[in-house]
Amino acid sequence: MQLNLQQLNQHLKGKLLPVYLISSDIALLNQEARDAIYQAAQQAGFGQRQRLEVESGFHWQELMTVANSYSLFAEQTLIELHNPAAKFETEAGKILQSYCENLPTDKILLIVSSKLSSAQQKTRWYKCLSDCGAVVQIWPVKSRELPQWIQNRMQSLQIKADAASIRMLAEFTEGNLLATQQALIKLRLIYPDQKIGVKEMAEAISDSAQFNVFELSQYILQNDSRSIVRILEHLRATGVEPILVLWLLARESREIIQMLEKIRRGQSPQAAAAGQWPSVQALYQNALRRMNLTQIKKILLSCQEIDQMIKGAAPGDPWNALTQSSLALAGFAC
């Protein structure tokens, strides 16, 4: 079965399938699809959740071990298998086919991957997943589609706005869907039960225009250490939650890893960055030429340590660690 996001939300109101594959390079929409499946699984009685990460040292046989395991409390389990680099090699294909041929009755398998290639979509394992479950492919929101996307989000959040203010928000966020969503939530809080025009929209986004958390990614790509430190100091002083900065840093690391993997497979920096918003493609292309895949993977691992600092489960100042990791991502030794 093939589903888009709208079809997925309707599908989850009924009986769940044993397997779901989410294929997307769009972090926000990927997360929302994953959360929707997770919530539906919880409501259906799948109270246990086990996560597997396809990274260096991962063996696909681990999936079968989890699939064949039994809970002491007879709990149904949602298996989340995260494959951000979309690496499905020969062993992976065999294991996924075997899983589909011997579906456990007390498990739901949720595979979360970046965008799959056309060749991968023609494989036997892909067909097996599609036959016994659902494949959810999420495509980027194009610039001409963004105003309508914002309008649909506003309707779901019960926000009323005129066309000019919607265009303003689309131009301001430039396709950064997470930034757009953050702005919409802010608008709902500031202007409840009020129609938003250009004036209200400008006021809502202007206070964050200079030091918006999402500008950090541009300074990283521009290799601008002074601006990186300056914006992080400002965000800290103004009470921005460090988890927002961490999310951005982790997201940028994952996207850069995916692009560097494409370059390693023979693509040019231009082709690897083609999926990014047009206004920042040149920044990514220049940054990719100086970035090292091994180093970026280390930075992504450091994000897990920072997450523990934020939660108080590990010692250290998360803001200092965020600064070091941001500078490292930009190419500065710390």
The total number of structural domains is 3
Main sheet attributes: strand count, strand direction, barrel closure: 6 strands, parallel
**Mean of residue pLDDT?**
86
Number of strands: 8
Low-confidence stretches: none
CATH topology of the largest domain: Rossmann fold
Task: Evaluate the radius of gyration.
Answer: 21 Å
**What class do helices, strands and sheet pairing give?**
alpha/beta
Side by side, the strands of the main sheet go: 1-6-2-5-4-3
Helix content: 55-70%
| CATH class value of the largest domain | Alpha Beta
Looking at the overall shape, the CATH architecture of the largest domain is 3-Layer(aba) Sandwich
Number of helices: 16
What global shape is seen?
globular
Q: Would you mind describing this structure in some detail?
A:
By secondary structure, the protein is α/β, with parallel strands linked by helices. It has three domains: 2-138, Rossmann fold (3-Layer(aba) Sandwich); 146-206, Helicase, Ruva Protein, domain 3 (Orthogonal Bundle), CATH 1.10.8; 215-330, Zinc Finger, Delta Prime, domain 3 (Up-down Bundle), CATH 1.20.272. Helices cover 56% and strands 11% of the residues. The protein contains 16 helices and eight strands. It has helices spanning 5-11, 27-43, 61-67, 90-101, 124-132, 146-156, 163-173, 177-190, 198-206, 215-221, 225-237, 242-264, 269-272, 278-290, 293-310, 318-330, and strands at residues 2-3, 19-24, 48-53, 77-83, 107-113, 134-138, 160-161, 195-196. Helix 4 (90-101) links the parallel strand 4 (77-83) and strand 5. Helix 6 (146-156) packs across helix 7 (163-173), helix 12 packs parallel to helix 16 and helix 15 (293-310) packs antiparallel against helix 16 (318-330). The longest helix is centred in the last third of the chain and has 23 residues, at 242-264.
